[in-house]
Amino acid sequence: MQQITRAGEPLDVAGTLPAKGQAAPAMTLTNTDLQDVTLDTYTGKRKVLNIIPSVDTPTCAMSTRHFNELASNLADTVVLVVSADLPFAAKRFCGAEGLDNVETLSTFRHPEFREAWGVALCNNSMEGLCARAVVVLDADDRVLHSELVSELKNEPDYEAALAVLS
Fold first, then answer.
1. Active site residue: 60, 94, 122, 130, which one?
2. Is 130 labeled as catalytic in the residue annotation?
3. Which residues of the chain have pLDDT under 50?
């Protein structure tokens, strides 16, 4: 069991975040068209997974906006924003914000993603949501970078995540 904090209070996180050099765990998530997608959906592309609790929180909204801005400069790369948000809410958020360089994916049908990817908040009031993390994959789904953000209210290290794509 890993731990992070939320406003300094410890939160348990189940699973183990994929480490640099590992093959990415399998995943199935649901997109805004209510279609299930897997890593194979993005074959041949590098992937930045911005894993967040919910786009309806300030830090998550900020990181989604920031990755949307950065994504426009990334060749052969898709930015996937993963949360427990329903696809309708994520689509509404991106539409209202004019975000078209990120794809939002939901764990609502596939909660197994959270533990398989080491981001399952558990044993606390946030159970069922994802911890904040960034995992960058190459086109062959090997992990180039991974960060489990130690304080839930903090933003990820954008520069470190994107440096591996240069």
1. 60
2. no
3. none
